[in-house]
Amino acid sequence: MIQPPIHLRRSVLYVPASNDKALAKLASLSCDAVVIDLEDAVAPSEKAAARAKLAGILGNRPASVREVVVRINALSSEWGADDLAAAITCAPDGILLPKVETPRDVLEAADMLEDSDAPQEPLLWAMIETPRAVLNIGAIAELGRDAASRLSCLVAGTNDLIAMTGVLATPDRRYLMPWLMQMVLAARAGGLDILDGVSNDFRDLDALAADCGQALAMGFDGKTLIHPAQIAPAEAAFSPSPEALADAERIVAAFALPENAGKGAIGLDGRMVELLHRAQAERLLAKAAMIAK
Ligand code: 1VU
Where is the HpcH/HpaI aldolase/citrate lyase domain (predicted)? Predict the structure, then answer.
């Protein structure tokens, strides 16, 4: 199993590149990543103007955001190639590709980055939001094993998936669940991060907290967001709890005892812990250290 590098992607906020007020707000926000959106949040008549703003936005990166990602329009659309070219010149940390349906869709963007002599970053993020993408998810995620693909993160696009399949959007997401779990499994197989889709009711923070708790239990690394009020609940849900951290410290300390040297499995507090649990504990502690920074 591949252990991907640890990124903090608990809270990932979409900001429409056409919304000057929201862009100005960024300076006062702290979250793990922002996605500057050129796609769905931007009307066709505003696409070119929004794209022209990228250099200014990236040149004035918000200080308390770890990653700045640009969501371009699909490369098959009339705007995609210009969006990608503009994004490359602005050197974001990532480029989010919408409507990815096959590995070829990712490799096409990776090839364009390679041809432009872009450095190791930007990494590529891929939206999984169509029935075809779900059916091809194993092959898409497998690209995570090939560094040349630059693929780093999958993003569930639940709004599109609901619209395109006709499933009923229920609060417990029961009809989406099989597809979301397929995405999580594929992401793990490919060594990729995976983010949950957005919660549209941005005033209902209790419902958001429930969605985040569910996404954490399903194995997601974080949540995509549409409003600043959603940042704190997402970060609370996807940060290791004090109890989990205390347990991780106990596991690491137990394996470090001289009597446990060289052992693959030990007893701790009446349960078996194995080296895989120590590896999990170390990852959790490393994540907590990144958050503390
Ligand atoms: O405090 P201020 O008045 O200065 O700022 C407002 C508002 O500008 C700001 N704000 C944001 N800032 C940064 N990023 C955002 N996404 C964002 N949203 C709002 O926060 C202050 C309070 O805002 P508000 O409560 O008055 O809300 P508004 O009516 O201004 O905005 C609501 C919407 C939903 C329109 C806004 O939050 C928004 O545009 N969100 C992002 C929509 C988007 O990007 N959609 C596409 C991605 S989702 C998708 O494609 C699914 C896969």
Answer: 10-228
Report the half-sphere exposure of 125 (CA within 13 A, side-chain side): 30
How far, in Å, CA of 124 to CA of 183, rounded? Answer: 17
ipTM: 0.98
Which domains are present in the chain? 11-238 (3.20.20.60), 242-292 (no CATH)
What sign results for the dihedral spanned by CA atoms 251, 255, 258, 260?
positive
Tokens 């371009």: give the residue: 72
Measure the CA–CA gap between 73 and 111, rounded to whole angstroms.
17
> Between the CA of residue 253 and those of 244, 259, 274, 280, 284, what are the distances in Å?
14, 12, 13, 14, 14
> Distance (Å, rounded) from C-alpha 47 to C-alpha 17?
9
Which tens digits make up the pLDDT trace of 119-168?
Answer: 778 999 999 999 999 999 999 999 999 999 999 999 999 999 999 999 99
- Is 129 one of the annotated binding-site residues? yes
Closest among 239, 151, 215, 217 to 189, alpha carbons compared: 151
Going by CA atoms, what residue is nearest to atom 31 of ligand 1? Answer: 227
> Annotation-wise, does 250 bind a ligand?
no
Grouping H, G, I as helix, E, B as strand and the rest as coil, residue 12 is strand
Ligand 1 atom with minimal separation from the 157 CA? 52
284 pocket-lining for ligand 1 (C-beta < 6 Å): no
108 marked as part of a ligand binding site? no
